[in-house]
Amino acid sequence: MEAVRAVSEGKAYFSPKVSRVLADEYVRYLEAKQVEDGFDLLTSRERQILQLLAEGQSNKDVANILDLSPTTVICHRQHIFQKLNFHSLADLILYAIRKGVIPSSRDVAV
Hints:
110 residues; mainly alpha; 0% strand; Arc Repressor Mutant, subunit A; flat
């Protein structure tokens, strides 16, 4: 039910098992590439937007929550993707879980 609800709201949903596999794979990828963490390059606003996007909020939802225009959110999102070398929203979500910006599904009590 949770997955259906999330998808119907236009949000991302990963099962606990898939989240774990994706996070582990992403960490292995970063270690193999010896990627430096660019989190410190993000502004406080970009960190807020990173968290909200990783939680499954749409650009429009983020704009409403932070009282910004959707265009401003998209601009911040592009900066986040550039600074952290992301290519997809999945990259952003996995990074946020790894950094502890959002809890993984296995960290959330049922």
